[in-house]
């Protein structure tokens, strides 16, 4: 098979020029695909997408839930300070 030329069959066969165009088009498409994959896995882009997702989730947090979380945090800090002061006495 190696080194042998393939004889053209019927008119379904593509001309050499058409084959060259298809090969070039495939190269261009493959180049775009490789570029897209490289862009997708680039660490800086992954970090940016992750931060965008976090920001979006934070923006959709219910204000009542956020307030309750803040109140709980203040309560825990206050409890910690009070218990620490009692131990020192």
**H and E string:** HHH
Low-confidence stretches: none
Q: How would you describe the shape?
A: rod-shaped
Distance between the termini: 94 Å
Output the structural class.
Answer: mainly alpha
Helicity range: over 70%
- Total of DSSP H or I helical runs spanning 4+ residues: 3
Strand composition percent: under 5%
Which labels suit this protein?
mainly alpha, 78% helix, 0% strand, 89 residues
Quick description:
The chain has 89 residues and is an all-alpha fold.
Task: Describe what you observe in this structure.
It is built from three helices and no strands. It is mostly helical and 89 residues long.
What order do the helices and strands come in, and which of them pair?
Layout: H1 16-41, H2 43-59, H3 63-88
